[in-house]
Amino acid sequence: MDEVKSDSKKPDNQLVAQVRQLEWSAPFKWLRMGWNDYLDARQLSLEYGLFFALSGVLLTALVVYFTSKIFIFGLVFLFILLGPLFAFGLYDIPRQLELGEKPTLKHSLQQIRDSAANQWVFAVVICVVSLIWLRAATIIHVFYPEGGDPTLEELLTFFAVGIGAGAFFSALVFGISAFSLPMMMDRNVDAISASITSLSAVMNNMWVAGMWGLLIAGLIFLGFATAFIGLIVVLPVIGYATWHGYKDTILD
């Protein structure tokens, strides 16, 4: 079992931390540990879960009511900016449990406030990548056949380019965010160093990271498919599991 770090955080001057080679079953272990954390901090987990579920309902209602594309894109970027804030609160819960403490909402919110600067830098990085992704999607339309009756080859070229670009940017966003946020909270490192370390960890464990990404996507889809009710459990468990993934992957 990993040695538990003290609650006092010390800056880490190393640009890229060393990473561990993971077993294929690691993501399932992280989810099991996340579920155990959910049970150990049941009340606080339910509070976070209810917040996420109600936020999902509210955002959906706003999108349905305001059909403006500009408004929808604004909501997406607002989610990107605020997401890391709430993620830090989730990561603090298994961290408190590892320290033998009873997790509290006050301590979790304090962690959000103390790490705000790094979180905003990380959010800006994600926004920049998202804007480049959006621009790339616009440029890809030049590959769409101009004629009214495109051939199969022309359509395949368009879809191949579009899917390839989407896969690249999706993998990039996942790579820099997979383990960076819990690392920033735990070691007080800057957002860039944490993002590079996370990307290094993913690239060195591509098959395991891919499985982890698919599990996250599947669980979130399940949460949405249950009219957001499943998010009450799914999102806190994913947050706790991400913490354990970071502890398992990034070496001290």
Topology:
Layout: H1 26-40, H2 42-65, H3 69-98, H4 105-114, H5 116-140, H6 152-177, H7 180-187, H8 191-204, H9 206-225, H10 231-249
Helix pairs in contact: 1-2, 1-10, 2-3, 2-10, 3-4, 3-5, 3-7, 3-10, 5-6, 6-8, 7-8, 8-9, 9-10
Describe the 3D structure.
The protein is mainly α and 252 residues long. It has one domain. It contains ten helices and no strands.
Order of helices and strands: HHHHHHHHHH
Number of helices: 10
Q: How many strands appear in the DSSP assignment?
A: 0
- Poorly predicted regions: 1-13
Through-space gap between termini? 13 Å
Number of domains: 1
User: What is the SS-derived class?
Assistant: mainly alpha
Strand content: under 5%
Largest sheet: none
Shape: globular
Query: Helix coverage percent of residues?
Result: over 70%
Question: Radius of gyration from the CA trace?
Answer: 19 Å
| Mean pLDDT rating | 84
